[in-house]
Every structure is written in C-alpha cells, then in structure tokens.
Specification:
- With 297 residues, the protein is α+β, with helices and mostly antiparallel strands.
- The protein folds into three domains: 26 residues; 147 residues, Helix Hairpins, CATH 1.10.287; 85 residues, Elongation Factor Tu (Ef-tu), domain 3 (Beta Barrel).
- Helix content is 63%, strand content 15%.
- The chain has four helices and six strands.
- A six-stranded antiparallel beta barrel has the order 1-2-5-4-3-6.
- α2 packs antiparallel against α3.
- The radius of gyration is 46 Å and the shape is elongated.
- This is Chromosome partition protein Smc.
C-alpha cells in the first residue's frame, strides 16, 4: 500500500469515529429532550419571578428617587434664594464701605467709627460666607447621592432588559418544544391531558364500519357514538356481540383515535382470540376490564 493510501485509510478511520461520536450525541439529545423541556419550563418560571421582583424593586427605587429628588430640589431652591440675598447684602456692604472711606477723609473721627462698623459687618459677611460654603458642601453631597441613585436606576434598567431578553428567549424555546410535541402527535393542552386520564362515561353504540390492514385483520372500526356522547380521543371501549339467546361474546377492545360529534374512529388494541369484529356489533364502556368474556365460545 502506498503512502497516500495509508493516509486515506487513517482519514477514513478518523471520519468514522467522528460520525460515531456525532450519532451518539444526536441519540443522547433525542433521549433528553423531555427533561430539557421540564428544565426550560422551570427556568422560565424562575425568570418570570425574578422579573417581577426586579420590576417591584425598580418601581420602589424610582418612587424613592423621585421623592428625594423633589426634596433636594426644594433645598437647592432655598439655598439659591439665600445665596442671592447674601450677594445683595455683600454688594450693599461694599457700597457702604466705599461711602465710609470717602467720609473718612472729611471726618477722621467719624470715619474711625464707621470703619469699626464696616469691620463688624465684614466679620458677619465672613461668617455668612462660611455658612454658604457649608451649604455648598451639603448640596454637593446630595448631588452625589442623586447621581448614585441615577446609576442604580440605570443598572436596574439594564438588568430588566437582560431579563426581558432571557424571557423572550425562553418563550422561543417553549414554542419550539411545543412544535416538537405537536409533531409527535402529543397533546399539549393540560385540560385535555387531564380528561384523557379519566375513564369514559357510560356509553353504548354500534360498529357502523370496519377497516382491515394488509394482514387482512381488523385494524380500525367506525362507531355510531362521538364527542356529543362524552367520548374523547384515547378513551377505550369494549366490543361485544349480542346473541339471540341473550348472551354476549366479547370481541376485543378499541381505543378512540379520531372523534366527531356523532361518530368516532377507534383502533383495535386487543382483539379476542375467537371472534371477528363486524358491522352492527355493540361497543360499550360498561364492561370494565376487557379480559373477561361474557360467554364462553
């Protein structure tokens, strides 16, 4: 065998192993789809609960932020009004000092008294300036708190958007799983599934037609009763034949696979060893277990 042939053999072996691994993964995924569906439903409920909690926390944070913002705005308005008043006072003081300086040249004694008064007013202005600085520091502190609250609101909005995106993705996965279930002819309506667990109501009807398979055996039967009589898909009924002497022969058991208001189609799931289902035979739900023959053949 040539060198190229050996390489091709090795490549073929590697591709075979990869195909086997891929087939194993597909089989494992096929086996676990139901557990994944349950896990996805659980995760969806958890995400919905987390979403509601985040929305509640966000609403509380917004309400608290609006209240604090209104309070801080009112305080800022008061501080601004006070600052304007102080500025006006400072301007008035400057004008007064200028006047006093002019008068000092004219009257030295009077200027000294006025100068002392100006110093006193200056001291008061300095005290007021210190108070203004304190108020500015307080305003800066509250502004920083306000920015922190805005950051918290922004973070909450981002988290909410992420939760909404995850919720939408979960809805898409749920819809996909529902399509998979529907493709396998499985019922997805919880009410219908619960009804399928209940036994059929007491009903009695006739076989109005039969259908055979390729092996010439009875596979389907058409019944003269339907959904108006309380039947649903998956209900199981017994087929019997009433004899002239008043006895009955059990012919088999059927399961409803298609339903109409007045008729139904059922599949034979347990035929009798002796006897073949025919038209005009009686179908009933009143026998209970099908394994008991009403008369020996």
């Amino acid at each position: 065998m040539s060198y190229v042939g050996k390489i091709l053999v090795v490549v073929q072996v590697v591709l075979s192993l990869l195909f086997m691994a891929f087939a194993g993964a597909v089989y494992s995924m096929h086996q676990n789809w139901h557990s994944k569906y349950v896990a996805e439903q659980t995760q969806k409920n958890e995400l919905q609960t987390a979403k509601q909690q985040v929305e509640q926390e966000l609403a509380l944070a917004r309400q608290d932020h609006a209240t604090k913002l209104a309070e801080e705005k009112a305080r800022a308005d008061r501080f601004q009004a006070l600052n304007q008043t102080l500025d006006a006072q400072n301007k008035g003081l400057a004008i007064e000092v200028e006047k006093k300086e002019t008068q000092r040249e004219e009257q030295t004694g009077l200027a000294m008294a006025k100068q002392q008064e100006a110093v006193f007013r200056q001291q008061e202005a300095e005290k007021q300036r210190i108070e203004n600085d304190k108020l500015r520091v307080a305003l800066d502190t509250e502004s920083a708190k306000n920015r922190d609250l805005q950051d918290q609101v922004f973070t909450g909005n981002v988290n909410l958007e992420e939760l909404r995106a995850r919720y939408d993705k979960m809805l898409e996965k749920t819809a996909y799983l529902e399509r998979v279930v529907a493709a396998h002819n499985l019922e997805t309506d919880p009410d219908v599934v619960e009804k399928m667990k209940l036994p059929p109501p007491p009903v009695e009807g006739l076989v109005i037609d039969v259908s055979k398979n390729r092996a010439n055996r009875i596979e389907f039967v058409q019944l003269s009763i339907g959904s108006d009589d309380g039947l649903i898909v998956s209900h199981e009924l017994d087929v019997i034949r009433l004899n002239e002497d008043g006895t009955s022969d059990w012919l088999g058991r059927v399961r409803v696979v298609d339903i109409e208001p007045n008729t139904a189609v059922a599949r034979v799931i347990l035929p009798a060893k002796n006897g073949i289902i025919q038209k005009s035979d009686t179908v009933t739900s009143k026998l209970g277990q099908p394994a008991v023959s009403l008369s020996s053949n």
